[in-house]
């Protein structure tokens, strides 16, 4: 199964997270508008990625003859539901400069939790799931 598009979306999302991290380190208030735009941009990619995973990738893997891979894929999908909800809440809270300017500490705390979870999850997919899917 060719999953190059999924892997490229991971690269794009991880680059977006790295950009947000750099902007936040340089000053949340000073870079609030750019951070908000970055969140909106990443959100669009994440929504597309999750939708295609749910509609195409996970169902295809579930039909796989490899029962262990099908179970692993279902576990990844179930786990992603909660991570996606957390990210959606994060994006709604911080997708405008005013929110960032009013609560820099809140943004930093939230970003450290939510973006780290997204980042770690994609790294696990890249390491533990995608190579197995490509091999099927």
What's the number of helices? Answer: 5
Give the count of structural domains: 1
Q: Could you name the ranges where pLDDT drops below 50 across 5 or more consecutive residues?
A: none
Structural class: mainly alpha
Q: How would a textbook summarize the main sheet?
A: none
Which geometry do the CA atoms define? Answer: elongated
**What is the straight-line distance between the termini?**
7 Å
| Count of extended strands | 0
Q: Averaged pLDDT, please?
A: 95
Gyration radius, in Å:
16 Å
Order of helices and strands: HHHHH
Q: Report the sheet-strand fraction.
A: under 5%
> Helicity range of the residues?
over 70%
Question: Can you walk through the features of this model?
Answer:
Residues 3-133 form the Hemerythrin-like domain. It comes from Achromobacter agilis. The chain is an all-alpha fold. 88% of the residues lie in helices and 0% in strands. α1 (4-26) packs antiparallel against α2 (32-62), α1 (4-26) runs antiparallel to α5 (104-135) and α2 runs antiparallel to α3 (67-94).
